[in-house]
């Protein structure tokens, strides 16, 4: 009798030892290097109308309590809001303040009532990477992503998990085949679906083969459809991320979990960066040194930003000088630079003694019309232009195959209007031209010091 008892106890001990050995064989290990990288970690938006909104208005005020999103933080111009009851959509135009924003259209009557809820849906592809811990034959890699407890597959943001958003198997990209792993098409299963525990959406990549330890794998979750990022969680503090669990598992052929690691993903508001760019136009005049070749001629005079000192001028050859004009503006309508002289060159303001403005070789030059001026027998003062980088110039020194195409400056003393010399119809970044001055006098020109004033004006259209 005692022998029988001992024999039974020994058998029981063997069974216990066998069970422990088997349990140790199936003991789980931690997968390593597990992470879930979201295409965007922006929280979705879920708010509701404040009272007092009216149909036809383009301004929406939101409730500041009682809903997941209670301020305009994380709402941006260009976002599409969708009202949950009507499914009407609107585009955000501007953020006015912490609880008001405008839309590019007007609010329909169906969406103007107090507490009417609306959302901004933000979706993201999840890229899950891991390194295997064990060689598990003919198994599967399964990723479980936190789901809400209700309404977790309606395509709208949830407050406590990711919405499934009608994902299909084709939205799962399994790892490339590698030693020990021959993957088949992935599967996407909504929370509580076949083989997927409630509380998590499941994405699975099955494989045949021996499996292998220390193998790096990557699964992409998201294609035509993507999971919807959560709206702010209950008790959320703006600027502090809400975190959600992502469980990555290596299953065996019977769908038992062998190796597993839980990771976390964080979703948070995007940062709104604002800046004011003041309307701006910059205009400068710079001197050009003698010896430079400008407007097809070697310059005889060095100019400064404020002076064109011709000095003693010849009667048998041209004296040439130039200045460089530069404009920059952020005006959407661009700019115009005009020029006008107070009068023709005269002695001490005595306008009865003047160096006349050039008539041109063909006597057709004026403040509005250019003419060739290459003949030294044509006396006077005039100018031409050489484009460096301007969008448009009024004329150019070598236009129509001319040697030096010239105009007169508009003359204020003769009631002439300032004339455009160069311009742009849009924003401009340091557009430049040379203004080329030319002077030659007759042998009978009265001796003396001649001068006049030329005013350049740059005007932007904002």
Can you offer a commentary on this structure?
There is one protein chain. By secondary structure, the protein is mostly beta strands. The protein has three domains: 29-36 and 127-267; 45-120, Elongation Factor Tu (Ef-tu), domain 3, CATH 2.40.30; 281-460, Immunoglobulin-like (Sandwich), CATH 2.60.40. The chain contains one helix and 33 strands. It has a six-stranded antiparallel β-sheet with strand order 2-7-4-5-6-3, with no helix packed on it. Strands 10, 12, 13, 14, 17 and 18 form a six-stranded antiparallel β-sheet that branches. Strands 1-9-15-11 form a four-stranded antiparallel β-sheet, with no helix packed on it. Strand 20 (293-294) and strand 21 (297-298) form a beta hairpin. The longest helix has 24 residues, at 2-25.
Keywords:
462 residues, six-stranded antiparallel β-sheet, 5% helix, Elongation Factor Tu (Ef-tu), domain 3, Immunoglobulin-like, elongated, disordered N terminus, 3 domains, mainly beta
């Amino acid at each position: 009798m005692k022998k029988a008892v001992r024999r039974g106890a020994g058998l029981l001990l063997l069974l216990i030892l066998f069970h422990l050995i088997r349990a140790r064989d199936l003991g789980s290990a931690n997968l390593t290097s597990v992470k879930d990288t979201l295409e965007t970690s922006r929280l979705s938006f879920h708010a509701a109308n404040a009272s007092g909104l009216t149909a036809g208005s383009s301004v929406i005020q939101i409730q500041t309590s009682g809903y997941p999103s209670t301020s305009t933080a994380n709402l941006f111009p260009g976002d599409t809001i969708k009202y949950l009851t009507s499914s009407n959509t609107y585009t955000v135009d501007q953020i006015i303040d912490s609880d008001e924003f405008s839309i590019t259209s007007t609010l329909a009557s169906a969406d103007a009532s107090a507490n009417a809820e609306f959302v901004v849906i933000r979706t993201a592809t999840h890229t899950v990477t891991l390194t295997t811990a064990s060689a598990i034959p003919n198994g599967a890699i399964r990723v479980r992503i936190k789901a809400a407890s209700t309404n977790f597959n309606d395509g709208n943001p949830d407050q406590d998990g990711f919405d499934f958003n009608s994902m299909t198997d084709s939205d799962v990209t399994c790892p490339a085949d590698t030693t020990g792993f021959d993957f088949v098409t992935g599967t996407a299963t909504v929370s509580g679906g076949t083989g997927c525990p409630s509380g998590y959406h499941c994405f699975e990549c099955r494989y045949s083969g021996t499996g292998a330890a220390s193998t790096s794998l990557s699964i992409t979750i998201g294609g035509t459809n993507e999971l919807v990022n959560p709206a702010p969680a209950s008790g959320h503090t703006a600027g502090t991320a809400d975190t959600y669990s992502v469980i990555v598992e290596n299953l065996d052929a019977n769908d038992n979990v062998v190796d597993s690691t839980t990771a976390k993903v964080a979703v948070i508001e995007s940062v709104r960066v604002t800046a004011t760019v003041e309307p701006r136009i910059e205009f400068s005049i710079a001197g050009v040194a003698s010896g430079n070749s400008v407007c097809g001629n070697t310059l005889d005079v060095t100019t400064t930003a404020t002076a064109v000192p011709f000095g003693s001028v010849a009667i048998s050859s041209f004296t040439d000088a130039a200045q460089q004009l530069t404009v920059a503006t952020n005006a959407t309508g661009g700019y115009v630079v005009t020029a006008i002289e107070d009068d023709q060159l005269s002695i001490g303001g005595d306008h009865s003694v003047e160096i006349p403005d050039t008539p041109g070789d063909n006597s057709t030059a004026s403040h509005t019309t250019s003419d060739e001026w290459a003949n030294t027998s044509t006396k006077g003062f005039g100018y031409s232009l050489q484009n460096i980088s301007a969008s448009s110039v009024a004329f150019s020194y070598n236009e129509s195959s001319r040697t030096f195409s010239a105009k007169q400056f508009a003359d204020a003393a003769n009631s002439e209007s300032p004339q455009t010399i160069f311009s742009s119809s849009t924003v401009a970044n340091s557009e430049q031209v040379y203004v080329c001055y030319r002077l030659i006098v007759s042998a009978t020109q009265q001796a003396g010091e001649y001068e006049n004033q030329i005013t350049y004006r740059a005007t932007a259209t904002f």
